[in-house]
Amino acid sequence: MNCQFTKIALMCGSVIAALSLSACGGGTVTVGTDGGGTFVPVAISSSYNDINFLQSVNGTSSGIGSIADYGPGGQTGSIVFGSNGMQSTSGYAVSTSGNVYWGNNIYAALGFDTNANDSYTPSLAMICNPVANGGVGANNETSTDVLVSVGAMQIFSGLQLAGLTFTQYYENCQAGGSIPARTSGNNLSFNADGSATIITVHGGSQVDGIQTLTPTQVNAALQGLPVPTLGPLGAYTTFTAYQYKNAAGSTNYAVVEHGSYMPVNLTNGYVAVWY
Length: 275
Hints:
This protein is mainly beta.
């Protein structure tokens, strides 16, 4: 599958950075502060599956999440996320100029593509907050949650992904998972026989490693059975793959990577997006 060109912008505090990317998802989502423009009064609530960085790596279950738009009567939008929806923001809105206000209680966020249920919300979202001894930067910016639209179809077989290549890896709301961002070099390819090849670079200038997962390992990882990979924590990793339609009706794909030193009772972990 040939990757499409897209543009994603990152809001981190009051700083807005625009990234031009090559991605296997499609469409454009602009994420920024609410400075300037008027909020679009949509008043639609969209439901999401929430993969939290501290949930068990074993299994394919996920938490609950939602994004509700700002309403025409001035109703405050909101985002529900975290383990079993235990956290929420007091705002979510999109301005007429295309900027997104993610609300409080979120340090940074990334939006991927446009939601078929509401084009003013993303198909996937990565939420980042400071976590002690984790993440990147002075504030330990860590990707704690990835929200995936409930309309997305989960894929459990590597053969269903054969021919797809994902060239962008996001973790900690950064391309490559580090500061400075690494916008090229990472690669996740699914081969014709259902195997997968992973090239990891993350934030460094050198390739961390090249690894091939057998078709059996790929299917296990897609079905919630952790496999050893080259991820930042290494020992246990699963992949949750999705096929979804965006607001324009295009069919696209994304893979959520979740890993930890231990499969349950996590005290550390990471969640990332291949796109």
